[in-house]
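User: Sequence recovery, please. Input:
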């Protein structure tokens, strides 16, 4: 949902503003997986171990099993 700023500031922070960093990372991950980024690439981008990157990617696929079928 969007806020009509002509009515002033929203009474509470909008979710898209409060979690903008998380949303950005999720979008990057979604597109990266769709375009074939590897666990090694995520590890380099995120500055984490291969195990941590693999765990994150596995969790992503567990929530979206249809993507493995599509790929």
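Assistant: Recovered sequence (71 residues):
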């Amino acid at each position: 949902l969007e806020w009509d700023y002509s009515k002033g500031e929203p009474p509470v922070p909008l979710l898209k503003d409060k979690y903008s960093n998380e949303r950005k990372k999720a979008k990057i991950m979604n597109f990266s997986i769709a375009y074939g980024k590897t666990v090694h690439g995520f590890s380099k981008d995120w500055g984490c171990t291969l195990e941590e990157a693999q765990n994150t990617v596995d969790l992503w696929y567990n929530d979206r099993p249809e993507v493995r079928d599509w790929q």
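The mean pLDDT is 90.
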